Amino acid sequence: MLSLRAARTSPHNLQNQTRRAIGYSVPSQRALPFFLNTKAANDDHEHGQSHFLRMLMFGKPGAGKGTLSARLVSKYDIVSLSTGDLLRQHIAERTDVGLEAEETVARGGLIPDEIMLKVVTSKLDALYNKHWILDGFPRTLGQARLLDRHLKKKNNPLTLVVNIDVPDDIILSRISDRWVHLPSGRVYNMSYNRPKAEGYDDLTGESLTKRPDDNPEVFSRRLTQFYASTSPLLNHYAHVARSSTTPARNPHQHPHQLTFHRSQQKMILKTLSGATSDENWPVLDQAIHSAFPTLKERAISRDMRINDFNDAMFAHRLGAGAGLQE
Question: How far apart are CA 292 and CA 273, in angstroms?
């Protein structure tokens, strides 16, 4: 029988009892976990790796690819890799890859993509925590996919692809003015980048020469080849750049866990549209400086910049002093 005391329970006490009943009605082990603002264990590692410059540069013949690469290597602590140089090194050192490549070339055949990948990655794999620029590879869409898979497997993907998009008519109008120093690869142009002494290299004083393919007929053929081979590559990397900005979900993540930090390593596709290397250089330099803050300048580059600043300040003060005397 219900006691008179229980029957007379006040509405206030009844409300408190109801709250307690609701609060403890669901067993704690049945509660669904909810996590906010969590990170995967290797996020910091991947975030750090994304700040290493791992770069490809594409450009039409005469667009200034060599000039811009040389300026980057001169200013920053970047390793520049030439596929042709690496291949010749393997052949000279009689490595397994070099012997296989040499045999293929001797038969007049094309070196298979898998061999070229081995040539390139034999060096890239040793540059895991280094900034680098790769020249001459990939040249086909198949090579690009092979390279992407290998670098992704090594957790060392590309972070920057640069396309130097100089208009065809501008390149065609200036190739006749181009002169090169063959031993170093330095390029001069009589229209906008003249040597200090006409016909001679600025650093060595050695004679400059003309490339045999620097004429309109050969250039037109090379331009056709460039569009056929490079357009698919640029489309591929444009897709990679878009995909790399989409957050990646961890398949082992709890369905009620929200993750805001984990994402794929971002790859940037940058197009330079200036008519000359002097126009494109500051744009490229600023883009790299902003995207890769861990990239350090070479000591000699910093010293030269400081000296240039000091010289400018001295000239300014000298001019100001002369103005006061007047």
Answer: 21
Give the residue among 68, 105, 64, 63 at the shortest CA–CA distance from 84.
105
Provide the CB-side half-sphere exposure for 144 (13 A, CA): 20
Supply 58's token pair.
């594409």
User: Backbone phi, then psi, for 182, in 5-degree steps?
Assistant: -60, -45
CA 3 distance to own-chain centroid: 81
Judge contact between 268 and 50, C-beta under 8 A.
Answer: no
Contact indicator for 72, 284 with CB cutoff of 8 Å: yes
Which residue matches tokens 């009620």? 256
Q: What distance in Å separates the CA atoms of residue 175 and residue 144, rounded to the nearest whole number?
A: 29
Residue-wise DSSP of 226-263: HHHHHHHHHHHHHHHHHHTTSPPPPTTS-TTEEESS--
CA dihedral 104, 109, 115, 117 (to 10 degrees): 150
Tokens for 261?
């930090």
**Is the model's pTM score more than 0.70?**
no
CA distance 74 to 312: 22
Identify the CA nearest to 182 among candidates 197, 164, 200: 200
Would you please indicate which residues are annotated as catalytic (active-site) residues? 65, 139, 178, 211, 222
Instruction: Quote the CA–CA distance of 173 and 313 in Å, as a whole number.
Output: 39
Backbone angles phi, psi at 29, to 5 degrees: -70, -10
pLDDT tens digits for the chain (326 residues)?
444 444 455 555 555 554 554 444 444 455 544 444 444 444 444 444 558 999 999 999 889 898 899 999 999 999 999 998 999 999 999 999 999 999 998 888 889 999 999 999 999 999 988 999 999 999 999 999 999 999 999 999 999 999 999 999 888 877 888 899 999 888 888 887 899 999 999 999 999 998 887 888 888 888 999 999 999 999 999 999 998 765 555 556 655 555 544 445 689 999 999 998 999 999 999 999 999 988 999 986 555 555 555 555 555 565 555 554 55
Please name the residue that has the structure tokens 């001169």. 74
